[in-house]
Amino acid sequence: MNKSELSIFDFERRFDQTKALEWMQENWSKSFIFCGLYAALVFGGRHFMRERPKLNLRRTLTLWSLSLAAFSIVGTIRTGTYMVHVLTSSGFRHSVCDNHFYKAPLTKFWAYAFTISKAPELGDTAFIILRKQRLIFLHWYHHITVLLYSWFSYKEQMVGGGWFMTMNYMVHSIMYSYYAARAAGMQVPRPCAMMITAAQILQMVMGLTVLGLVYCWMHDVHCPSTVDNVVWGSLMYFSYLVLFASFFYNNYLKGQPTDRKSKAE
């Protein structure tokens, strides 16, 4: 089966990737404006809510999380179908170095939708602020850097994007489903949260691996990239790896032996 034989929906086929790329090349710098406004929301919003009662917003948060979960699930299926096809037909190296992902009929819409979605996803933080929940550095740092890197990478059509986007779609499909269930008042077992963070850590390890391979292969005419992209991408993924690993340790491992001992006694 070749790529042209993959099942394509009409809206995916009709999507104008050329215009999408042109728009991103002309407007990608607006991501800095979004990040500036977002930083104002983070710090100004917390100050604004300091003396005000928290809002419930459970129904709104449930719908918000459900919509992002549905988007991520469909994105996972569509981009995952393409990546599995590339892996089985052309091999792992080609899957890493393939930048046809941005313009293939099956994935061109989902690559652009993924990139654009990083702006509305900033809205996650508004719920945390308005509900006066704990807002950690990892949360807002992750949102800002993912937005900047995603928009820049799409503008440059950087190789490795298929892996990065598919992994992120996959993790988000689980994460937002979990958020929706929690917002709806469902009792979700603690190991589910642990599994999500573990999946995020694995995503960062794989992201660093892909970037390392891109660096090794980028002098090949079939694996176009730049040292700057590899360096910035690696710094981003490494910082995520450290922060998520620290979060996992502090929330799920730290103090566990003591807790188990207390329960035993």
Summarize the structure.
The protein is mainly alpha-helical and 265 residues long. It has helices spanning 10-14, 17-27, 30-49, 58-90, 92-97, 108-117, 123-130, 137-156, 161-183, 190-217, 227-253, 256-264.
Summarize the structure in words:
It holds the Pfam family ELO. The protein is mainly alpha-helical. The chain has a domain at 3-187. It is built from 12 helices and no strands. The protein has helices at residues 10-14, 17-27, 30-49, 58-90, 92-97, 108-117, 123-130, 137-156, 161-183, 190-217, 227-253, 256-264. α4 (58-90) runs antiparallel to α9 and α8 runs antiparallel to α11. The longest helix is centred in the N-terminal third of the chain and has 33 residues, at 58-90. Residues 257-265 have low confidence and may be disordered.
Biggest beta sheet attributes: none
Along the chain, the helix and strand elements come as HHHHHHHHHHHH
The number of E-state strands comes to 0
Figure out the total of helices.
12
CA gyration radius, whole angstroms = 20 Å
How many angstroms separate the termini?
62 Å
Estimate the global geometry from the Cα principal axes. globular
Strand fraction band?
under 5%
The average pLDDT score comes to: 92
Structural class, by secondary structure, is mainly alpha
Low-confidence stretches: 257-265
